Amino acid sequence: MIPTLLILALGAAVALMVWGAGGRRRIRVLDSEGRPLGAFDGGALMRRLRFLIPVVAVLVLLPMSCRVVPVGHALVIFNNVTKTFRAPHQGVTWVPPFIATTQLYDLRRIEYTMSSSQGEGRRADIDDSLWSPTKEGLQVGIDLTVWHRIDPDRVTEIHQRFGPDFEEKIIRPAVRSVIRLVISEYPVMDVYSSKRQNIQNEINTKVKELIGKDGFIIDEVVLRDVRFTDEFTKAIESKQIAQQAAEQMKYVIEKEQREAERKVIEAQGRAKAIETINEALRQNPNYIRYLYVDKLSDKISVIVSDQNTIMDLKGILQEKK
């Protein structure tokens, strides 16, 4: 819009200057009856235009030449005449009009997500997750997020080599390649188990080495989700059910073993008690008679006359009544 207005304004100014060049004399204007109405001073108009044209040019060119670079950004400026680059960071900067091309780059941390869920990730309308074979050749699906930044000192180099679509040219292919390479070295159960953190650390190391040399800083590669095929998921569920049944059986066996051990210990205790009682009886044979009488004392009245005779006093008393 501004270049169009500028061209129209300069064109009008040039036309007026050409027309005014022949109007330096005073031109008399007559009415229909030949009487003079006044005079048009072309020279005075030219003097005004010579003053106004630079003012209009400055007012039009100034907004075109001044650019405000947002916070956390860099503006790559290429001068088509001198064929040189410069990349001023946040703030106001000067851009030569008509002879310079510009490209704005975000130097802050950028999130690039590849996900199977619609509405997530850079390609929200498709399943953008990464499927990779494991060491056994089984396929696993991975949702991930890459947090990356541009090295501020190499933004001009990145613009020259890759351009503003560097994520599709560098970040995405490199991350997908490294993940496939790392996952293929691990068995599927390692990807599914606690070794997943080790796998993520290895992926981070390799991605940083691969992309860092191109001027990109990788803060973190996060494995957000790991999925398996439906067939493998069913197999895992069946295995978990079998493991739970085995654990339950192991618990039952251990419980029975502990119960058997308890009974053995109880039997041993009883045998030890019997042995102790037998030893006491050998030392005092009358102790057994005492125990016998003690057990019967709540039902009958008894009296021990000697060691071989037990008299029923209760029966004798009932006969007298």
Tell me about this structure.
It is built from 9 helices and 12 strands. It has 4 domains: 105 residues, no CATH class; 119 residues, 2-Layer Sandwich (Tetrahydropterin Synthase, Chain A), CATH 3.30.479; 45 residues; 34 residues, no CATH class. With 321 residues, the chain is α+β, with helices and mostly antiparallel strands. The longest helix has 54 residues. Helix 1 packs antiparallel against helix 2. It starts with a helix and ends with a helix. The strands form 4 sheets. Strands 3, 4, 5 and 6 form a 4-stranded antiparallel beta sheet that branches. Strands 7, 8, 9 and 10 form a 4-stranded antiparallel beta sheet that branches. A two-stranded antiparallel sheet has the order 1-2.
Task: Name the CATH class of the largest domain.
Answer: Alpha Beta
Q: What is the CATH architecture term of the largest domain?
A: 2-Layer Sandwich
Relative helix content: 40-55%
Shape: rod-shaped
- Total strands: 12
Instruction: Report how far the terminal alpha carbons are from each other.
Output: 140 Å
What structural class do you assign from the helix and strand content? alpha+beta
How would you spell out the order of helices and strands?
Answer: HEEHEEEEEEEHHHHEHHEEH
Can you tell me the number of structural domains?
A: 4
CATH superfamily of the largest domain: Band 7 domain
Gyration radius (Cα, Å) is 51 Å
Low-confidence stretches: 18-25
